[in-house]
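Quick start: what a row looks like.
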Amino acid sequence: MPKTAPQILRENTDPRRVGAASGEGTLRILHLAGSMPNDWGGIERYVMTLARAQAELGHEVTVAGVPGSPLMRRMREEAPTVGLEFQTTQNKYDPRAVLRIAALMRSRRFDVAVSHFSPDYLVAGWAARLTGFRSLLMTRHLVIPFKKSRARAYARDYHGFIGVSQASAASLVASGFASRHVIAAPFGCAGLVPSVSVGAGWGPRTFGIFGRLVDDKGVDVAIQALRRMEEDAELHIFGRGPAEERLRALAGDLLDEPAREEDVAGREGKRRVVFHGYTDAVADVMAAVGAVILPSVWEEAFSVALLEAMSLGKPIIASRVGGVPDAIEDGTHGWLVPKNDPAALARTMDAFLRDPGSGAAMGQAAKSRWQTEFTPTSGAIRVTQAYARLMDRE
């Protein structure tokens, strides 16, 4: 019988090996993030949380990023033990970026350099070729194979490739990289902690969706599912984005917009969709809903929102896409449904409402799994060990 993703994950993580404290010595790690000037998204959060956790494990960590960017500002404020170098990649053919990265590689301060985003991939590869730097690794945050010509260029300059999920790693192998040079190493996330002001929440018949409102996230599928349900329920949507106007139109007569946020509670008893916009209080509102839905219709490499819901012990219903099965075993930690299938999602939402005890039990199982496998520390151990294994392979 083939191994499940969680079994492979556990086999590839040895919690006894923790940097300098384990006697294995420290790594001097350089994270290349010069192509991240304006956003604060999943990759930026990954780099900051990972770098900070690696430093806490005793490794010497430096992040090279854009001066004044959200990533570098937060690094300075929230990760003071991580070194900072200022480096900007204007585009994937930026010769100045090549020279700046080459200077860092020539300094001999680093055992390994890791690039994280497409514009940095080429310039870091050229810098490694220019300097003879032999420990350049790539982290792939998507589940999309590279074009064969691009993959050949990367294979020449990179020592190894890390997929942030089994699906991401499989897409790297599908690109043409040798499987012995590819490792799946899912990371993790900091757990969410609600404020003391959060009470009993909005009731068991409330479902929450969290993230940018774009077509890929499948929010329209959830709205269609709500219409198909046999039970009455509420769908609370947190986030903004270009699809918001179309999603509001799709909600139509289900749309309900309380005059005040505090009026959301106490209005149960009917089927409705509420758009809340962007919120900084993700922990509070995610804790307040009865269950969290991730209805993505594209191949999510590895969802931070999913891990955050796990850290809160929330019942979870998610599309079976990309790296989601790496975190959630169907029927154990939550429910997995086919993507872009409103009828299947509606049936699962109804099942949760009719048997809330099962959902609560799966939520607690998900929280336990997050605590053992997806905290920043456990994730950093797994990822850093992947670095070491790839550097040992010729």
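That is the whole record. The chain has 15 helices and 13 strands. Residues 1-23 have pLDDT under 50 and may be disordered.
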